[in-house]
Amino acid sequence: MVPLANSLDLLLNYSNSTNINMYMFVGGTNFGFTNGANSPFAPVPTSYDYDSPISEAGDITLKYYAVRDIISKYLPLPATSIPGNTTKAKYGPVPMEFSMTVQDALQYLAPLGPTKSKYPVSMEKISFYYGFILYRFYLTELTKTPSVLSTKGVRDRAVVMVNGVPFGILDRDSVAVNLTGSPGQAVDILVENMGRINYGSEILNNTKGIVENVTLDGSVVTGWEIFPLYLENINPTVALKMAQHARQTKKTTRKTSADGLLLTPSIYVGSFEISGEPNDTFLDPTSWGKGQAIVNSFNLGRYWPGRGPQVTLFVPAPVLVASPSTNYLFLFELEAPPCEDSQCWVTLTDTPCLDGPNGPGTSARHRLFDQRDFRDPDKHLVH
């Protein structure tokens, strides 16, 4: 704050014709799948708060007052008053329950069924542009000893599963996964488009999904089913259908990877009520792995608290509803939910956390069920 004020003072004092452009002066949010990426490929997080003078939530910060004080030395200030900040609510812990694996949810997320193709094709080839897409082929031979599934064409990150069991992660750097399976079992590659490059020469190399062939022990895999996943289909009405389906069929089960780091990507559901007029709040997914958060029918954006630096997601008041209506929270978790039994927690807090650990070495791939503390909402990072 002090370096910014001093630098601004120095620039404005330099010349009467000095022009200043602040990026960003007002923070914002990349809700849903609207975040971009920097070149060669560095995805932008959901939050675009940017430590701005006016925050992501529209709040006036101390930095704003520091900038205002410096400007007042050179220009008259407007006579209008500064608006007050909005009230932030601490709604507390929200119990989350497992609903359905991504495989069993295909009937809801991809209601038109798959596109069939000899080779994998990009999202754009099937007129699908954002979010998640699942590629599937079937094993034709027994693979008791690990077979190597490989591709350099994942854009941008993928969970590889056989018969629902996770075997590993593919991305632009990790291009191979060892797997085993039996003839007829489905190999699913759940790909996440993590954001398109915003500028530079690589903006022309922006196709998503699987953009090159996939090999298994060196042989090119053919015979693909491609499911575009419409996460906007996740809503309270569909949640009730999924819960009823799960009770009737009892076939929805999550499976753990051999190393205990991954669980079948799945949908988790929670609900809460608000007395009185809703206020802005922040979703704290500390202890969860990586995924997408939806409140009611509004896609808040991506969470990845272990990778950082962003931990909390901004939840604006207009997406919430007051009692007697019920608010529904959905997490499409890709990696490792902190559930030792059937229930997990997230917290709705009044304080943002945007400066958590950052970088590949900080990824929170802890062993499943070693996170018992996080069943206690009082032990979340942010309260």
From TrEMBL:
Read off the SUPFAM superfamilies from this record: (Trans)glycosidases, Galactose-binding domain-like
**Superkingdom of the source species:** Eukaryota
**Would the keyword Electron transport be found if you checked this record's keyword annotation?**
no
| One GO MF term attached to the UniProt entry | hydrolase activity, hydrolyzing O-glycosyl compounds
Pinpoint the Beta-galactosidase 1-like first all-beta domain residues. Answer: 120-229
Which Gene Ontology biological process is one annotated for this entry? carbohydrate metabolic process
Q: Which residues form a coiled coil?
A: none
Q: Which residues form the Glycoside hydrolase 35 catalytic domain?
A: 15-73
Keyword set, alphabetical order: Glycoprotein, Glycosidase, Hydrolase, Signal
Segments forming domain Beta-galactosidase galactose-binding = 265-322
What the entry lists under PANTHER family is as follows:
BETA-GALACTOSIDASE RELATED
| Family classification | Belongs to the glycosyl hydrolase 35 family.
Q: Specify the protein name.
A: Uncharacterized protein
Give the organism, scientific name: Elysia chlorotica (Eastern emerald elysia)
What broad taxonomic lineage does this protein's source fall under? Eukaryota, Metazoa, Spiralia, Lophotrochozoa, Mollusca
